[in-house]
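Researcher: We are triaging several targets before committing to wet-lab work. For this one, the compound of interest is flavin-adenine dinucleotide. I'm pasting the protein sequence and the ligand SMILES. What I need is the predicted three-dimensional arrangement of the protein with the ligand bound, expressed as structure tokens, so it can go straight into our comparison scripts without reformatting.
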Amino acid sequence: MSKVEKPRIAIIGTGMAGLACADGLAQDFDLTLFDKSRGLSGRLSTRRAPPYAFDHGAQYFRADSAAFQQWLKPFEAAGHVRTWLPRHVNISADGTKTARLDAAAKKVFAPGMSAIGKALVAGRPQWNVYLDCGVDAVDGKAGAWVLRAGEQSFGPFAHVVLAIPPAQGQALLPVETSFTQALAKTKMLGCHTLMLGYAPDEAPALDWDCAHFEDDVLGFAAVNSGKPGRGGELALVLQTKHDWSQAHIEDDAEAVGATMKARFEALTGSKTFTSSSAASGYDRVHRWRYASAQVLATTPEQPYLLDRDQGLSAIGDWCSGSKVEDAFLSGAALAASLRNLV
Ligand SMILES: Cc1cc2nc3c(=O)[nH]c(=O)nc-3n(C[C@H](O)[C@H](O)[C@H](O)COP(=O)(O)OP(=O)(O)OC[C@H]3O[C@@H](n4cnc5c(N)ncnc54)[C@H](O)[C@@H]3O)c2cc1C
């Protein structure tokens, strides 16, 4: 079968779920991928601000399933998947630090969490990939969907996969589907990430790599520059508790950053710096409106939403979990199901 004869599928969103789905479909379909961001990989994201780099979304991931382990193997061989053995601590409300006993192997993509998208797509030149291309609407009819992105139109596509957060997917759905209700009931919470890049003479000496906080505001911190394949000057990533962020989702970024810094200083005794004193450092807050699923759409037995008759489906971590591996399993399972169409 030549490429032009293959059914055309559009995948909106190139996070782990969209990438896994595309890879599972590649043999049998003519694929077009869209992402509104300038880079691939979604919440597996890395911000570079030399001499600093920050993974400001997912920090590390687990690969417990045989399917994910198998899929990762070639990337592991190429050095894009590394095992991280952080010094992991819990920090209690009064600042007491205790070693955290967490035996699960932690993996990171290298040289940054976003590396997986680039590594995958580099080996799939036959895919049509449109970045910086947010899809505004899905028009047309079942079996012949047309995607609108600004002034541009793409299609027709036999099938459209929504690999984006559920609220955004719901807004794009052109018709009532068998999964409209499931999308509507799914809920995601926000998160704020504070990225602090220290000048060498300002860097605190930390005796941990990852910290979980007993606190209403701060949830987690990681020394990003200490992860395998990184380096550079001290780059610290702080993350809020999801409930706190949800309650402060519209707050001014600077106010959020100030609160996070104050909590970090109180809990660890380590210095941060204010924007005005950070002439040689880096100090930014990133807000994630959709960070982590609170109400899931499906179950692990069928971690995707599919309306075969309409030629529409939806995937993401939020189908049956809130982690990178859940996103992978969602995309891979939908691909296996769609392969039966040909
Ligand atoms: C702060 C934070 C910390 C986390 N920490 C961890 C962790 O330590 N371990 C772990 O396993 N998981 C963690 N996660 C969760 C993990 O990042 C996700 O489970 C996983 O990356 C989700 O992948 P996905 O493909 O489902 O969605 P996403 O990665 O969100 O991908 C969706 C993509 O769709 C694109 N998009 C949206 N709308 C449109 C549109 N209209 N047109 C085109 N493109 C569109 C977006 O730009 C994005 O690239 C964390 C997440 C956050 C935010």
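Researcher: Any quick observations?
Model: The chain is about 25% helix and 30% strand.
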